Amino acid sequence: MSESVLNTTRLTKLYGSRVVVENINMTIKRGEIYGFIGKNGAGKTTLLRMVTSLVRPSGGAIELFGSSDAKDLQNARTRIGAMIETPAFFPKLTARDNLEYYRLQRGLPDAGEIDRILHSVNLTETGRKPYHHFSLGMKQRLGLALAIMGNPEFLVLDEPINGLDPTGMVEFRNIIHRLHRENNITLLISSHILSELAQVATKYGIIHNGRLLKEFTQTELEQQTRGYILVKVNNAPMAGCIIREQLDTNQFEVCSQEEIRLFTFFDDPSVVTSLLSANGLRVYSSNEVKVNLEDYFISVIEAA
User: Is the pLDDT of residue 1 over 60?
Assistant: First the structure.
């Protein structure tokens, strides 16, 4: 069983009488990329701030790397890198000079680490360009560079691709993949850009109104969001019996008296529709339906 990097138990945060995060039980294991999904104001940032000790919980417990004692948590957080709020960089300093300032501030001995970090986030060519002339994508990547300074084992990123153009999103995604692959970093990434999150995450959690509604793996997501062919007929239960008996498959779901979902025969759905017609059923329509993470997220929210 892989080691748990983060466990929260009934984690809660109140501001006055307003409950922002309520009784959250979350588990992230070593090597996972955990996609934290929720609408604006759902409680994502508050939870991340509690994990990184920027905010004190109102209740519940946090366990990092197997430790929940206050002193152990303080030591465990030295193994975490985070980009939750925009870092305070000096506008007239270069990327290298800004990182050098933080290296000295943190007492990190290896000056050569800055070259490695700049290369990791594709900022080696910035030269003498000052920070205030950086594009948004460059600023985000410099923030990521600061977060990975000191070789953290666990990286917490809050909306890291918010505001980036498509090219910037792709570049940031590739950096995340590389960090995960080469350094085996465990990541917790919050985002509301689900199409992009779906291309990096291996596990997901959906938060809504401060409550964690569901956790699921990428494999479970693929099972829940697999496409299907929606066939409308005059008698869907009978159609199901015909498909099961004559095509020898259970890869379908009868949704109503007139609708049936097929999870196979994508290459040639006419095999099914012709069979149903040949058995006296009236086929009204047959359409392929594609489902993605956004559709699934909405369905979970609506069910709650």
Answer: no
User: Which domains are present in the chain?
Assistant: 4-218 (3.40.50.300), 225-303 (3.30.70)
Which 3-state string (H, E, C) describes the chain? Answer: CCCEEEEEEEEEEEECCEEEEEEEEEEEECCCEEEEECCCCCCHHHHHHHHCCCCCCCEEEEEECCECCHHHHHHHHHHEEEECCCCCCCCCCCHHHHHHHHHHHHCCCCCCHHHHHHHHCCCCCCCCCCHHHCCHHHHHHHHHHHHCCCCCCEEEEECCCCCCCHHHHHHHHHHHHHHHHHHCCEEEEEECCHHHHCCCCCEEEEEECCEEEEEEEHHHHHHHCCCEEEEEECCHHHHHHHHHHHHCCCCEEECCCCEEEECCCCCCCHHHHHHHHHCCCCEEEEEEECCCHHHHHHHHHHHC
**65-75 confidence digits (pLDDT tens):** 998 888 888 88
pTM over 0.85: no
Over the stretch 8-36, which tens digit does the pLDDT of each residue have? Answer: 999 999 999 999 999 999 999 999 999 99
